[in-house]
Specification:
Layout lengths: L8 H16 L1 H7 L7 H10 L12 H28 L4 H25 L3 H15 L9
Helix pairs in contact: 1-4, 1-6, 2-3, 2-4, 5-6
Amino acid sequence: MKTSYFRTQKFHKKYLKITAIVIGSFGPIFFLGTMLSTSGPASWTLDLLSWPIDGMQTFEEPTTRFLSALTGGFLFGWGVMVGCLSYWVYDKAPEEVRKSVLVGVLSWFFLDSLGSITSGNPSNALFNVVVLLFAVGPLWWPAKN
């Protein structure tokens, strides 16, 4: 029986770069939220994630901008780390990298979604499902080579 290309180590290694971009792309957006003059993209993103879009999410408060700095830094760093794993580690330990990234993304999904629900923003949990599916893609299943 022939293995589907989407379940090969070669494709998984390529897909990890997509995972890295999905995770890391939120970093610069939230970094922009650290300064009032550039906070528009972060405000819009937060407004979208706390549906409906009503303009209620702003970055006026210094504590919100500081939290945006932390969030942006963590997400960008996490995305870069996944990219580095795909370049420098995957060939040495493909299944271990796949499992590590999968566990990390699932951990984010559950805690972020639970926090969104308990903070009164359940719509973000639904957006998280879409991000989860894009971030994990074929990494749900072990590669067969």
